[in-house]
Prior knowledge:
By secondary structure, the protein is an alpha+beta fold. The protein contains 3 helices and 4 strands; from the N terminus they run αααββββ. A hairpin with an 8-residue loop joins strand 3 and strand 4.
Amino acid sequence: MMRRSLVASVIAVALLLPFAVFARNFDFDYRMCVREAMNRREVGIIDNTLNHNNNKINAYHDHRARLFDAWDIENDKDRNNVIRNADKDFQNIVKDHDKNYKNIVRDLSNNFKNDERGCRNAYNDRVKQVPTGNVCFSSNECRPPIGYCTTETGECRMSCERNSNPCIQVCSGRCKVR
């Protein structure tokens, strides 16, 4: 009994393994396209973040220098005005940098969504080229690796030339998309 189940398992694996391999690889171009789009987005975000942080650091240095210079002013009223103006300018600069950063990240994300949509549309166009439903005798007729022929579960019949022996078994299937 154990021997039968072992043999059945080996046969099942042998029959299903090609489908698992094709199922894993059929969308390779789509995955590579999305991976490249994701890489462009992430590299852009990294560059933008580094630029944003450097701009903020420069703004802090300028603010510190203005505050340091303000304490050289002897008049309290003038000194307080210079400090207040330095603080306002610093806040406006940081706010502008933050707004610019958010806009660039939003644009990068929108570009990624559009690129991913383009990858999906290109993949769907390839899938539409598969002659689904057509009678086939091998998967080569169904635009592999996206399409495959169901010859394993197709209709088999005996074909005899001019009603003579020997007859051969002919199996046909239908093209399907993985």
